[in-house]
Structure formats: C-alpha cells, structure tokens
Amino acid sequence: MNQLSQWRPDMNDPLPLYQQIEAYIIAKIKSGEWTQGMKLPSQRVLAKQFGVNRSTIVAAMDRLVSAGMLEGNSGGGTRVAGDGEVDDLTLHDSEGIQPSSSPRKHWNDYVEEGMHYPNLPLVQTINRMEFAPHMIRLGTGELSPSLLPEQSMRHLFSEIASSLDTVPLSYEEPLGSLQLRRELCLELGRRGINASPSNVLVVSGALQAFQLISAGLLERQSTILLEKPSYLYSIHAFQSAGVRLAGVPMDAEGLQASALARLKQLRQAVLLYTNPTYHNPTGIVMSEARRTRLMQVCDQIGLPILEDGAYEELWLDHRPPAALKARDTSGQVLYVGTLSKIVSPGLRIGWIVGSERVIERLADIKMQTDYGSSSVSQLMAYHWLHSGYHQRHMEQLREQLRIRRDTMLELLQQDWHDIATWQKPTGGFYIWVTLTGGCSLNKLFDRALSAGILLNVGTLYDRGASRQLRLSYAYAPIEEMKFAMGKLAELIRMQG
Amino acid sequence: MNQLSQWRPDMNDPLPLYQQIEAYIIAKIKSGEWTQGMKLPSQRVLAKQFGVNRSTIVAAMDRLVSAGMLEGNSGGGTRVAGDGEVDDLTLHDSEGIQPSSSPRKHWNDYVEEGMHYPNLPLVQTINRMEFAPHMIRLGTGELSPSLLPEQSMRHLFSEIASSLDTVPLSYEEPLGSLQLRRELCLELGRRGINASPSNVLVVSGALQAFQLISAGLLERQSTILLEKPSYLYSIHAFQSAGVRLAGVPMDAEGLQASALARLKQLRQAVLLYTNPTYHNPTGIVMSEARRTRLMQVCDQIGLPILEDGAYEELWLDHRPPAALKARDTSGQVLYVGTLSKIVSPGLRIGWIVGSERVIERLADIKMQTDYGSSSVSQLMAYHWLHSGYHQRHMEQLREQLRIRRDTMLELLQQDWHDIATWQKPTGGFYIWVTLTGGCSLNKLFDRALSAGILLNVGTLYDRGASRQLRLSYAYAPIEEMKFAMGKLAELIRMQG
Ligand SMILES: Cc1ncc(COP(=O)(O)O)c(C=O)c1O
Ligand SMILES: Cc1ncc(COP(=O)(O)O)c(C=O)c1O
Fold first, then answer.
1. What is the pLDDT of residue A85?
2. What would the CATH number be for the domain defined by B122-141+392-495?
C-alpha cells in the first residue's frame, strides 16, 4: 500500500478533508485496486501520511465502515470489506495498536484521542460563525431573540423572588423535579399523550435525550433507522456511541413505512428514529394515514420507535395529526420533547416519556452524566408552564412565525421561482429548497459567508442532498431576511 | 465449564450480586480450576446461568478485567487472563455475539443493553434512599439545606428581574457565558490560578467535566491513576467510557508521588486524577512539599494531571496550600472546579481550566452532548460571584461547618473512641473513620438503614476499605447527627 503515501487531500478544496479521503478510498476500492480483505495502515499512520488529524481519518473511516466498504477488527486493524453492497459486517472500534512503552504525554496530545467524534467541520464553522457579529443566519434552527419571551421571563423571576416556595438549590431527584414532571404530564395530556410523572425523565434538552439513549439502551455497533434527510445526520449523538445510521426514504407523507421491514432485516436495525411533525429539515408532516400504517408496521416487525416531537406545537395553519406516542398502547414509542424550539433553548429543558423501566435506566445514566438538570431551569420551566404564560406566548409566537413564513414564501416566489422549488410548510421553522441548476453547495456556502450570510446546506442532513438548502424563517430579522434572500438568489444565478 | 451451572449468587446475601460473582470467579482462577486462556461463556449465557441481569455480569467482569484476571476479545469472547499479577492486557468491549436474525424488540428489552454501566447497586440504593422521608443521611456529600443560601438566591432573583440586562434565553456560546467565564477567572485568580476566559469551559458540574474528558480526550482501554481510595471509584464516569482505574497509595501527606513512575510504566497510564485538597473521602490535604514533588515527578515522567478542586474553598482552620494548577507553568494540569460543594449543587455549574486547544476540544464535545449548560444557571452563577454574595456566604458557611465538624469530632470522641480511629479534618465535609473491630460493612449498612440511617461505606471508594466509613458533617441536622452517631456506635458494638 505504498502508493498511499503519494496522495494527500487538497487543503484548498472546499470539500472537507474527511470527504476527500473518503472519496479517495472509495475510488481505490471501486476500481479494484484495493481488494477485499486487504489491510489498511493504522489510523495514526494514515493521519501522518495524509497530513491530517487522526479525527479526520476516523470520520472518513467510519463513514466507509457504515457504508460496508471497510471493516474494523480489534486484532488486525481495518480491512477492506467489499464494494459497499454487503451490509452485515462485524465492526470493532479498536484499531489494534498496542501501547508503546510509556510515552511522555501532555494534555494537548490528547486532543485527537477520545472516542467522541469532533463536530463535522462545517458544523464547527457554523457554531463559530453564529457568534460572529453582523452575520445573517438564514438557516438557524432557533427562535429569533425577538421571539423569545424575555419580558415574561423577567416577570417570572420576580414572581419567584416574592413567592413563598423554597428555591430548590440541592441536587434534584433522579427523574427531575416532581412539580415540573406533573406539569409536563398536563402539557403532554393536551397533546393527547397519557403519562404519569414516573414515566417522565427531565433532561437538559432533547440532544441529551439522544445521548442518554445511545449510552444507556443501545449496544455499540447497532444500527438505527431514521428519515433521510434527518437532523441526526448533522450531529454525532448516536455515532459517537458507535451506533450506525441507516436512512429511510421519505415522500410527501413522511417516511416510507413500506420500506421498514426490509431495511430492518437488512441492517439488523434496533430502532426507528422519527421526527414526524414539521420534520427537520424538510418541514414535512407525516400524514394521518402514514402514522397509522407506521404504528402497524413497527408493531408487526417489532421495531421500537423513538419519536422526536421538538416542533409539534409550532403549527401555523391547523393542528397536526396526534403524535405517534398518543397512539401507543404497548410501550412501542419512546417520546422526546423540548422547550428549546417553543420557549427558550437556553433553559436546556427537555423530557423523555416511556415505560417506568426504561425511564429508570435512563435516569440512572443521567445521574452518572451530570447529576440531573439545573434546578433553577426546572423551577423556571415549572412556573412557565403552570402560570399560563406558556399558552399566551404560544399564540403570539404562532402569529409571528406565520408572518415570517409568509414573508419568506413571498421572497422565494419573487426572487427564486426560476432557480429553485419548495413546498409551503404548515408549521415548524424550515423551508427545504431544491436548487434546479447545477450549483456547488460548498462554493455557495463560502460565497454566502463572504457576503455575511450563514447557510445550512442540505449535505449536513443527507450526504446526497447536494442541491438542497434548509432555510429557516424563525431566526433572521425580517429586513435581513429580505436582503439575504435577494443576495443569495444573485449568488446562485452567478454560479448557475 | 459445566460446573458453572451449579452455582448461583445468593439473593439474600447482603454482598451485591456482582461482587458475589466476582468472588466466585476469583476463587476459580486462584485455585487453578480455571486456567489461563480458558474461554468463558458469553455474558448473556452467564447472566442466564447465574439468574442475574446482564448488567450484573458486566459489572463483575469489568472489575476482573481491570484486575487483570479476565481478558476480553472481540472475536472470541472473554478468557481467563491470569491470576491478577500480569497487567498488560488487551481488552475489547465487544463480546463476540453475532446478531441473530432480526429479532422483534420492545423498548424494555434494551434496558440491559447499552455500554454505560448502571450505577453500583449500593449507589442506586443510596440515590433512592436519599429521597426517602425521615432518613438521616450521615455520609451525604452535600451541604445541608439549612446551609444553602436560599435567602440570598431569592434576592438575586429579584435583582435580575429589575435589572436592565437581557435575560439570556438563547443557546449560549460553546465555552459558556462570557460574563460568567470572566467572573470565574477573577475567582480563580483569588485561588492563585491564572486563566483567561478562553481557558475556561463552563460545564454542568464537575461530574460532567469527567464525562467530557473521558469521551473527548481518552481512548477506550486507557488507564488513569488516581488516589486509592477515591470518589471516582464510586461513580462510573470514566469506566463507562472504557477507561480503567489504577489506585495510587496515600499517606498523611496525600498520594505517594514516589509510586507514580513505576505505576505509570506498569499500567501504561495516561493521566493522574487527584483531589489534593480535603480529599473525598479521606479529608486529607496534600502537603506543600508533596505538591512540589508531585509536580516535579509528573513533569519528569510526562504524566498529565487532572486536578479536582471541588472542596478547595472549604478550609476551616487556615487556607490550604495553593492548587497544583497554581504551580503549573507548562499546561501539565487540567483543573476542574464546581459550585456544588460551596453554593448549590442544583445550579449544576462547574468549570474546566486548561489550554485553549484542550478547552476547544472539550467545548465541541459539550456542544454535542447538551448544547451547553443552562443559561439561567449561568446567569445566577455570574450574579452570585459578581455581586459579593459569594464572599459573605463563604464566611458564614465556614463558620457553620466548623461548628458541625467540631460537634461530630466530640461525638466520635465520646461514643466511638474504643471502636474506631480517625483524623481531624481541616476542611471539606468528611471524616474517614476506621473501625477497629471486625464488623461487616454490608451488615452495618443494612442495619443502619433499618434504623433510618443512611451510610456511605468505605468500599464505595476502595474495594479494600472494608473497615472504613465516610462520615459527613455537612448534611444531617446537628440533632439528628447526635442521635445517629450514638445509634451507630451501638450497632457497631453489637456486631463487633
Ligand atoms: C428535530 C430536533 N430534535 C432535537 C433538537 C435538539 O433540541 P434541544 O437539545 O435544544 O432540546 C433539535 C434542535 O435543533 C431538533 O431540530
Ligand atoms: C471530589 C468530587 N469531585 C466532583 C464532584 C462532583 O460534583 P458536581 O458534579 O456536583 O460538580 C464531587 C461530588 O460528590 C466530589 O466529591
């Protein structure tokens, strides 16, 4: 494999390094130059030869392992598994390197070790750029600061200050504050979901729920099914726990339930993650019929469902069909919710609803992860839901989001009609736009960035979505939105 | 290995099941009945044969692997490695079970899967019992509710309500709120530690710091050195990430720095965790001379230090020697602090101080774990430190803790002088008591529990500490402390 040492990824290519490496290896395998069973050098050696961080190699290899092209083996390093058609690999996360004799170490040497993936380079850029001043964030999955209930929260602070309740400053119970869980059960009831406080675990946002589920309920190397595209592809909550993702195609009614039995069998999948209502990033709402069908299929084939209800309450035109969890009579559905998209992401309050056994196991892991969520956040969340602020806020919020959505649709109609297609969303934050011309998303991202516009490109949510953008009408001020939509149309036309 | 099927752990034995299984396997190996290289049945099969949960088997095996008696191999299951004298094993976390063909699954089936360990059964009991009414908690590592600054926090709420600052409701920056990090740098400065905001990561308590460090900086199967006994043995922050622990003996001046070079070499250790000031559970303060020596040794052998300063500010008689981090000129020390032991555990605010590269890597993992700590907690923590509440509170707190410590010392002198030995702590929460008679800690724990007293037994912190108790003077009301100390002396005498 000495020919390896000739090639290096191009630092100036907008394609991320790990994708260049991935493409390089795919080419070697597909061309037959690298044959099945052939052993690759260790990650460390590869990193050195390619002149990149080890984490970059890990990112590339992992995608190739998921694709069935490489195969890890703790004894003998990584091998070529096949050309990606075969799926039943045995993968191990070790790379078979024996520790050398007691090297001198400094903390900085550890930055590339650790089994947790770094964020995707593009996501790191976005995370950083979100805090750059004067950046217009046209894809951000967050409420604009002007839509956050600052004033009401301030009132809450003074109500708490003058109330006679004790301010909880101790560690909370493993499941979270009881008064909050009671209040959440009422809120869930309004969504058609029956739960008692012992079925609810308070978590620090939905993201932590995924973290706990992957650490607490899944074995390394198991595979979960999910919509393609999906929010989960843009983060590493599951992948860092060694869990693999396998996409289920979607249509206008949501994920294709008919594909599940085959995919489950083929990928030995252990669960289905779905975001059925105002799906991130497509905005699609799973239809009533599809929900019924999905519940049937999953029950028949014994595939547990992880339902993400993050955007559920953000309906703009009419209420969406009831959650899957509202239809669940046998404990087939684990439901995750959050205050992040409807009240405040900063509070970091989310919840998991499931059977007592599952909730207890997750609570145990949660105690070992951070000893529970902030008691002050839990207190604020309780008062927020309890005192009626929430209902009033939701009405105002829907009103504002409706205006924003309609504005963005008008702008699309006006400036983009000949360069893109899209569907009108009925709730949530997003418009999933497909560009009709052949335009490089990476170039567009960079040019938009130079023009002060931060984009969420489709490839974050599906490697194949190379002509899509996730636009969000929730974040940028309307004036900025107008400017940015025009500017962006220009940039796209330039590349055309 | 069919003889296995004869034996089962005794459900009525107070010794936890996993410890019984561990003892059983040790006996088999030590006696030579099971020889090196011999292959054990899979975890699933063992669980069935012993009539226990798979997590119990995992807990037992892992301790045996750490002890060098078993060896995991992803291809061929678990094997007998030796009699515990040899240390350089290659361990893998898989157990070589191939997925069977597409089984029907329900969420409840996953409760025993997942790579994260359950809490130790004893810790689970303690976690649960801490919320039982009328329980006297004589070992709890927390401030009594009466020592928490309820009144001042209430004032803070109204100050925030009437201030003109915006209430932060959005996601925070990856490193945490800048105003809080600035304030923490001032606080660190008072502790002799020089840091700028880019060296500080805000975390949800020190526990989360360990979680992030093990996921972000350490490879699976690496080993860390730590004091023996140690708080880290009672939790699974590192072990669940596949990291092994190797104890360093302590004396009255702290951990024995002279043992480090050999231990590092022998165990291929990657870092040293230490809690040098008011050590949990022994209360020991590492001496000035030992700190100097430790820094020298670690610098020489290239062993990075993870310093836990959780109790540092809780000096009762005189200020302790400066933190290791205050002596660090080369970035050898990563420092962890928390508000939990001095202000409020419920706030879930801690911090990590290190080089920018390390802090950035950890921040990236933090963003992927929970998108940052609660913005409301960060706001409260900032105001708390900034407004001078903290200094006033610390003075009162030390005053109260002094009274409590002296009371507990008097009670020991009065009721325990003939059944135990101990040292007077000069700060922190704990008195580490050694029972002089031959008394079973498990029985004592159960009997105390029946008498309404919750104990933290020594074995939680060191498997070998079978005659020690960690008493805490920080939690129980003084009247309860008096009753419980008398009652406990009685129970010990009964058994002795
Ligand atoms: C579908 C979906 N689920 C979950 C989350 C995570 O939200 P949080 O962790 O803030 O609750 C997001 C945020 O982007 C999301 O879009
Ligand atoms: C030595 C030590 N470090 C860290 C912690 C964790 O504290 P927290 O996660 O609440 O900050 C504790 C709590 O028991 C402790 O004793």
1. 41
2. 3.90.1150.10
